């Protein structure tokens, strides 16, 4: 995934997790960096560091930010290419003890049942999914 993205000219990579529990999706509150724009609710995500695979990056993000050290990736959902040049790989993920995120006090979060996958990632590119699926492991 990293090599293919770099060959496409994309070097800023990120990974996001779609975590479902009891028919609800985990959302985390993200700062926009703009004082005039309120924080947004989004999938747990973060940057893939140099030298990491996308999958390793996702595991690190979930462990460090949310305390999910035993996350299991169940599916590769697709890619979101942002206007800022970042390519985000979106994975369906399951975790042991999903409610344990409530024990991590610094992470504003919620479990939402009034949102769909299309609402969360409306611009996901399923065409590129097959292109990158061979690297999924």
List keywords for this structure.
137 residues, alpha+beta, seven-stranded mixed sheet, 4 helices
Brief description of this entry?
By secondary structure, the protein is an alpha+beta fold. 22% of the residues lie in helices and 34% in strands. The longest helix is centred in the middle third of the chain and has 13 residues, at 54-66.
| Structural class by SSE content | alpha+beta
- Total strands: the figure is 7
Fraction of residues in β-strands: 25-35%
Q: Which blocks of ≥5 consecutive residues have pLDDT under 50? A: none
Helix and strand string, N-terminal first?
HEEEEHEEEHH
**What is the C-alpha radius of gyration, as a whole number of Å?**
15 Å
| Spatial shape | globular
End-to-end Cα distance: 11 Å
Major beta-sheet overview: 7 strands, mixed
Total of DSSP H or I helical runs spanning 4+ residues:
4
Q: Kindly report the average pLDDT value.
A: 80
| DSSP helix fraction | 10-25%
How would you describe the overall organization of this protein?
The protein is an alpha+beta fold. Helices cover 22% and strands 34% of the residues. It has four helices and seven strands, in the order αββββαβββαα. Strands 1, 2, 3, 4, 5, 6 and 7 form a seven-stranded mixed β-sheet that branches. β5 (72-81) and β6 (86-94) form a beta hairpin. The chain is globular. The mean pLDDT is 80.
